[in-house]
Prior knowledge:
The structure holds 2 protein chains of 2 kinds. Chain A is mainly alpha-helical. Chain A has helices spanning 3-25, 53-56, 59-64, 92-110, 113-118, 145-157, 166-177, 191-205, 216-219, 257-267, 278-289; strands spanning 134-136, 141-143, 246-248, 253-255. The longest helix of chain A has 23 residues, at 3-25. Chain B is 0% helix and 51% strand. Chain B contains no helices and 7 strands.
Amino acid sequence: xxxxxxxxxxxxxxxxxxxxxxxxxxxxxxxxxxxxxxxxxxxxxxxxxxxxxxxxxxxxxxxxxxxxxxxxxxxxxxxxxxxxxxxxxxxxxxxxxxxxxxxxxxxxxxxxxxxxxxxxxxxxxxxxxxxxxxxxxxxxxxxxxxxxxxxxxxxxxxxxxxxxxxxxxxxxxxxxxxxxxxxxxxxxxxxxxxxxxxxxxxxxxxxxxxxxxxxxxxxxxxxxxxxxxxxxxxxxxxxxxxxxxxxxxxxxxxxxxxxxxxxxxxxxxxxxxxxxxxxxxxxxxxxxxxxxxxxxxxxxxx
Amino acid sequence: xxxxxxxxxxxxxxxxxxxxxxxxxxxxxxxxxxxxxxxxxxxxxxxxxxxxxxxxxxxxxxxxxxxxxxxxxxxxxxxxxxxxxxxxxxxxxxxxxxxxxxxx
Lengths: 302, 104
């Protein structure tokens, strides 16, 4: 074989194997019929989706519609945001912020570079969490608040603070609480982030597991959303990333968004992935883009 | 831990709405460590008192059925702004905590 043809044959082979790999890595999945979601609209995309946004967009609106709390037919329209009104002002989420703050102080005492790493070289953490997840060119991957904490602890302190561990969640709650009230601003101009968004969007509609459910089976218009699913009424997926990590009363512990995905998956009777799995990162990007423009509301309880 | 209790007060129509979040493990003594099989020793709050201007307004006897990090909410009629509120608890190990707040 002449060198050129051999090279061509090799190129053809690799391209075939690359194609084969893509299809082999991703088994056939039925797709739920996609709803039209425009990422550029952020949380306002809920208009024309579930149309419940006007009921929970602002605190004043929530106060006005607080009469719906406990009403089985109407409560879903508040997207659980009434729990952010925080009427008692006290729940274990607030304790987690204190614990996370103390932990961050302890860790930065050991090595001040830890906070510097968390702040991406800036002087403080204020408002920084609202821009996550984002693409980190140096690491070559999408970074979430939780994976950023894990990364900084590993590189600066050589300590494992794994995503999904209570310590990581406490630090994440503290970090995000410093951005409380600031609108989420995920950078849609980043090509890599948009690639991740598209992958996450695909996962949102992909059916999986014994029950063959997709996220969309319950959370898009025309599905079960707004109707009874056993004891629950599924709500819109818009703005749901804003209050994570949150204190979950049914669990009695803090839960990050990706741990919540795993819990959904167990209820959908499908394989649970570990926090930090690329699929969950893509899904988190998708969910956070749907919260773009909605203020971070950490600490919170659900 | 910075503090053992968080207190919020609010005056509504002449009565004080008081909410206290206590930080406590509230172990029942029934739970086992899944790895070693050892029982976690019971550790729960037994007595809670609340007083306004040194006058007791609430006495509570608690047991292991109360949740971890309990949240206690109650209302006191006739409380005024500026009154001093003291919450104290004692658990079955004899540990005590005390927190003060001003009604606002």
